[in-house]
Structures are given as structure tokens and as C-alpha cells.
Amino acid sequence: MTIARKVRAYFAPVERTSNTPTVFDPAKDFDLENPPAPWMAAGEVREFKRESATKYGAMTSGLKGAASGQFRAGMEARISFNFCAWGKLQMAIAGGSQHMNVLAEDGNATGAASGGAALAPVAVLAGSSETELILGVGAVDAFDAGDMVAVDVDYAQQTGYIGAPIAAAYVKDPADVKRDRDYLRRVSFNVAKVREKTATSLLLETPLAGGAPVTGASVQKVVGFVDRESGSFFQEWSGVFVIEAEEGGRVCFYYPRLQACAPGAEREFALDNFSMHTLHAECVALPVKDELDGETVVCFRSWLP
């Protein structure tokens, strides 16, 4: 029996073109407070539930058709859980489809459900890092400490999965993308809060998920996040769920490939004079081959005493 206070969730990108997950090695140190990149903490989850829909069949032999062995068919596994915190990562996984950064708009912009025409981006200068954006004298005046910002390059009519290293959307036809200059910054996971600023730089509270800005990247202010029910894109992540036992040790559930498989939903829990609204997520586990012996699996469960 394992007694625990909570389940913690961590997610990392899957390379979508090759379906390559981020590896979780139970033999390596995994700091729950500061997980190793590219793993990102998503906080506590509640009502964590694992379900298997894999079918089991029997091989029979003899005149009486006695079972002589078993086989697995129709492999399928699903998990569901509720995020206790709201944020970009949590909303993206719980929402399932593209997740948008709501960019600060020009005062004359026409309204739009996913955000209207945005204020012009500010170029990020050479020498910037994942925690410092060098913009130059005067350019930093467009931002203040406490602002959320998105950092990425201009959209240049790319097709297929866009966003690196985290695929944030899939574009079939560039003609479908309106206000195309800012589209990558609208969907990018390179989002962070400005902790403070200097005369020339923005210092970020947390490192950008995609690392140091690439050449040609620009920054725009983010005023919120929005997701949409339905759409053609499916979020896919590697996931680790950790149960910390009160008696010591950890139980870890590692899912190399998780795809959201349900539309965005919330769960309401009654509290004294209040109610708590959590993000409900449901994911299907996609199979991978274990390099150890070539077996096809969907989850690795480890106990670390």
C-alpha cells in the first residue's frame, strides 16, 4: 500500500514528424521542483485514473478447445485527470487542439474570437538567451515587469507541423492562415512572464520552453490564452505522473506518447462558500517500441524506493 498526498504531472514535447518522444529514465535524477529540460511541471492533478481497453484472446487446442495460451489484441490505454492550476500548458493539454496566445491589440483592431490584429512585434537582438531578451534602448518601453510575452519568428507560409521544439499547430494550406505574420507567436509555447527589465533587456521569470530565441525572432505582449473546441490538430506530449509516497519512494507512470482525446471540459468541486473549477483532461496513450527488446508498449510503471 502506498499513501500519498498528491499526484504531480510533467510533460515534454514529442517530435511530431518522427513520432519521437522525450525519454524518462527512472535511473536518472528527476528533481520534482526543477525538472530537467525539456520536462515542464504542470502542477498537481486530481482524480488521476488509468484505464486499459486492450483485449485479451485465448489460443485453444484439442477437441475440447482448451486454452493453451493467451495473446493481446486491440491495444489501447487511456488516462484522465483534473489539473488543479490553469495555465498555457494545462489548457493546451486539456483543450486538445491548437492553443492560442491572445496578443495585445492595436486600439483600432477589429474584434476576433482568437484575437484581432496585434501590436507590431519587437525584434529580439543577438546575444539573447532563454531568460533574457535583448531589445535595445527604447524598444523595451513597450513592455513592463509582470507582462507575459511570446517569442518566435514571423510565420513564413510553412506547412505541416509548425513550432520548434514544441509542435503547436498543423498548417495544410498557408492560405488558411490569416494575419499570417504573427501566427507562430499566437500558437507558440515560447511564453514567459517578464520578471524585470533593464534599459535594454527583458529578464524572464522562467526560461523559454524552446530555449534561446533563434535568429529573426520577435517578441509580442500576451494578455491571455484561448482554446477552441474541435479543430483538426491534436496535442501530443510525453507525460510523467509521479506519486510521492509518505513512507518514502515514488511511483512513476511514464507515457511516451499521449494525445488529447476529448474536447475541453471543466469539473466543479464544492468548497465552503466557494467552488473550485479544474481543467479536465482525457488522453489516449499511443504505442512505442522499447529499445530493450522491441516490445510494443504504451506505458512504463516504475517504483523507486
Strand content: 35-45%
CA radius of gyration:
22 Å
Distance between the termini: 13 Å
Q: How confident overall, as mean pLDDT?
A: 91
How many beta-strand elements? Answer: 21
The main β sheet shows up as: 7 strands, antiparallel
Q: What does the oligomeric state look like here?
A: single chain
Q: How many domains, in number, for the residues?
A: 2
Helix % is: under 10%
Element order, helices and strands?
EEEEEHEEEEEEHEEEEEEEEEE
Task: Please tell me what the overall shape is.
Answer: globular
Number of helices: 2
Can you give keywords for this protein?
305 residues; mainly beta; 6-stranded antiparallel barrel
Concise summary:
The chain is mainly beta and 305 residues long. Helices cover 4% and strands 45% of the residues. Strands 6, 7, 8, 9, 12, 13 and 14 form a 7-stranded antiparallel β-sheet that branches.
Describe the secondary structure blueprint for this structure.
Blueprint: E1 4-13, E2 40-52, E3 55-61, E4 66-73, E5 77-83, H1 88-95, E6 99-103, E7 122-123, E8 132-134, E9 148-152, E10 160-162, E11 169-171, H2 183-187, E12 191-197, E13 201-204, E14 218-227, E15 236-245, E16 250-260, E17 265-271, E18 274-285, E19 288-289, E20 296-297, E21 300-304
Antiparallel strand pairs: 1-2, 1-15, 2-5, 3-4, 5-18, 6-14, 7-14, 8-13, 9-12, 9-14, 10-11, 12-13, 15-16, 16-18, 16-21, 17-18, 19-20
Describe this structure in words.
By secondary structure, the chain is mainly beta. It folds into two domains: 4-53 and 72-96 and 234-304; 100-224, no CATH class. It is built from two helices and 21 strands. Strands 6, 7, 8, 9, 12, 13 and 14 form a seven-stranded antiparallel sheet that branches. Strands 1-2-5-18-16-15 form a six-stranded antiparallel barrel. A two-stranded antiparallel ribbon has the order 3-4.
